Each structure stands twice: as structure tokens, then as C-alpha cells.
Amino acid sequence: MSRVAVNISARSVVHRKEVIREIPKNYTCNYREVVVFSDLRKLIVVTRPFYDVVGRAKASKLIRVLMEYCLMINQENSEKVKLVKECIEWATSNCRIFLRRALEARLIRLYNDIGLHVEAQKIAGPLIAELKKIEDRELIMEVTLEESKSAFALKNFGKAKTSLVLARSNANGAYVSTQMQDDHQKSHNSLTAYRQLLTMGLGPRKTFGGKGRGSALHFQAALDLQSGILYSADEKDFKTAYSYCYEALEGYLIADPPKAVRALKYMCLCKIMLNEADTIPLLLSTKTIQSIRGREIEAMKSMAEAFTERSLSKFNKCLKDYNRELLCDQVVAAHSRELRDNMLEKEICRVIEPYSEIDLSHIVRCVGMTQKQIEKAISMMLLDKKFFGVIDQHNGTVHVYETPHKDKTYQKSVELIRALSKTVDAIYSKAGTLLK
User: Fold this and answer.
1) What is the CATH number of the domain that holds 379?
2) Which residues form a coiled coil (predicted)?
């Protein structure tokens, strides 16, 4: 009888576990608009006695799954934070140390998502120190990457780089191995096939804390994207940033296609910052990228058109129409001032191009800014040698000179004389040796 009872109990445990996992899934799928956040929150509390029956690992997974479904619901951020903190307190009081660490890592990510970057930094430091002691590389990677993101948002680029380096070093010792890197390179040659598998539901998917190939690719893509962001914001090295974003795009297309939009968006931004806005339509027309659509991509296309046409009015209209996609994005906002300055310079160049002498008042009317702002912009352009000329403040005009062409004849002649001199010296040295 005891064996039968044990079997029934085991079956009951498995059945209850499956029911708990399916309830929020069906609830959120069928009643997404009217779902009550408190209902799923109560489900987490009500099922807590059941977690003592199943193993700690399975219980931890169930709690994280239920919590993720709660966080998917459109609810106030304060309520989401409160929910995660309640779960952390329960895990702490029940001595579930590994669950508590995983939940704290999730809280850091939530803080970053809602813009509370200072709070994320406060939790990340002590948690990383704790994780280093037990060498939990996988969780260290997740936390250090989130710490890098929060440090970037707080303009602390030094700490952001340090955290990213730590994330990469731990990734090299965990599942992001040399074999995974080789697989990532092979995936470039069979990208279409993998995307078809994903569409059919057969390809690798990202899993919470999973060590599968899909999870490894997803994390590698996240590392590459963060590297691209830091290179563009801190060092202004947009070529390197573009290459990192491209690697991130390839990884996301395989592991998490919806996030590929962000990588492509920053690729377009790098092209614009490199004064290669005219190449963006060609980039977006490539076979692997054609399927990526959204307002963020439309925003970058609109901005590229404004830069190509050198129209400040179109640029300002683009910022107004796509304010959320552009100025509310921390990465784009970090370059907003430089983008405005570049656009102003292009507009001024477009206006003065046909003339050898032009009134400042005419430039002011065409550009739509004050004369003081225009004079300052033109002065900076002259100092940076964006064009050659002089401002005649007495007459209120700008004299535009032709761009001087460097004659390389003199330079080549000097190089030739130096080469001949070295040849003569070598011949003289050999002749002296023969005479001896």
C-alpha cells in the first residue's frame, strides 16, 4: 500500500506542477487585456506550501515562471518591484539561497527596464561579490551585464566597461566557449535555415538560466550589443561599434529575432554618425534584414533621409514624429547633440554651396535659427575646416572660397630626392669597401 501511495503522491505532484505552470499561461493568453495582476500574485502566495513537496530546484523554477508571467502584464512598475521583493523576502526567510540570488538578479534587470539605475547599482555590487565566492559564472554574467547597462545609463563609462569585461571573462569560462563561437560562425553561413527552424518552433530558444546553444547565442549577442553601445558612446569609434552591432544582429536573428530590431537600429545610427546615411537603404534591403520591421527602423530611415537631403527641418520633424523611438532611447539620446550639430552643419553647407558670397540674413531665413547661433556654427565650421571662407561682420556676409587642392608634386619630389640620396650613399659605401 505504501508503494501505491507513493506512486499516487508522485503523480499528483507532477500533475499539480503542470497545472500551476499552465494556469498563468492560459490566463495571460486568453485574458491579457482584463487580467488582474493581483490574481497571479495570489497564485504565487497560495502555492507556496506546495513548494515544500517538490524539490528545491523545481520549486525555484516554478516561482520564477510564475513571476515572469506576472511581470509580462501591463501593470504599475512599483507593483512589479514589490512582487519581486516579496519573493526575495520569502526565499530569504526559507533559506533558499540560490533562488534568492536568481530573484535579485531579476530585480536588477527590472530596475534597468524601468529606469531605476541607481537602485540596480546598489544591488549589483554586493550580489556580484557574493557570486564570485561560489563561482556561479552564469549568474555573474547576467548580473555584470546588467551592471554595465546601468552604469552606462548613469554616464559612468569606466565602470560600464569594467563590468562588461568581467561578463566576457566569465562567459569564456562558462557556456560561451570556443565551440559555441565556432557554432556562431557556422550559423552565419546557414542563417536562413536556422530562421526557418525557429519559425517552425524547432530551433534553439532562450531559456531562463539555460545552458543550451540558444541561450549561449542570446547572451553572446547581448554582450556584442553592449560592446557596440559603449564603443559608440565613450570612444566615438563608430566603425568598431557597427561591427559589434552586426555580430549582435546575427546572434539575435537566430536566438531571439524580436531583439534584432534594436541591433539593426544601432547599426543605422553608426552609419549616420559616420556620414554614410546614403548607404542605409541598401543595408535595409539585404535579404537577411528585409524581414525586420517596426517603428524604430522607420525612424532611422526617416533620419537617414534627412541627413541625405541635408534638411534640418526634416530632421526636426523626424525627432518630433519618432520622439519615443529616438530621444527616449538612451543610446540615441547620448548622440542627440552631435546629431543636431551635424545636421546644422549640413544644412548650412547646402545653403552656401551655390555662392561665393552670401548674406548672413539669408542663411538665417533658410535655416530658421537666430543670427547669433548661425555665426557661432559657421565660426566652428571654419575652424574645423568644414569649408574655407571668412565672415565679414561689417557687411553681414560670408565669403566662401574654393577648397584648395594640394599639389603632391613637391612632396613626391622630396621623397624621390631622399631615395636617390640613400642610393648614392649605399653605392659610395660599397665602392669604399672594394677599394680597400
Assistant:
1) 1.10.10.10
2) none
Give residue 36's pLDDT band: very low, low, confident or very high (50, 70, 90).
Answer: low
Q: How far apart are CA 326 and CA 299, in angstroms?
A: 7
Within a domain: 358:
yes
Q: What is the pLDDT of residues 396-405, one digit of tens each?
A: 888 888 877 7
∠ Cα 146 155 306 (to 5°): 100
Give residue 384's domain range: 354-400
- The answer as to whether 387 is a domain residue is yes
Ranges 41-55, 158-172, 232-246: which has the least confidence: 41-55
Per-residue confidence (pLDDT) for residue 68, from 0 to 100: 81
Contact indicator for 253, 246 with CB cutoff of 8 Å: no
Q: What is the DSSP letter of 401?
A: E
Residue closest to 28 by CA, chosen among 63, 83, 82, 75: 75
The whole-angstrom separation of Cα 205 and Cα 213 is: 8
**Residue 367 is assigned to a structural domain of this protein:** yes
374 with 328: CB under 8 angstroms? no
What are the grid coordinates assigned to 163, written together? Answer: 563590468
Phi then psi for residue 358, to 5 deg, are -145, 145
**Total domains present in the chain:** 1
Give the amino acid at 98: F
For the ranges 69-78, 109-118, 342-351, which has the lowest average pLDDT?
69-78
Q: What is the helix (H) or strand (E) element at residue 103, kind and residue range?
A: helix 97-114
Please report the beta strands in 264-304, taking only residues with DSSP state E, as ranges in sequence order.
Answer: none
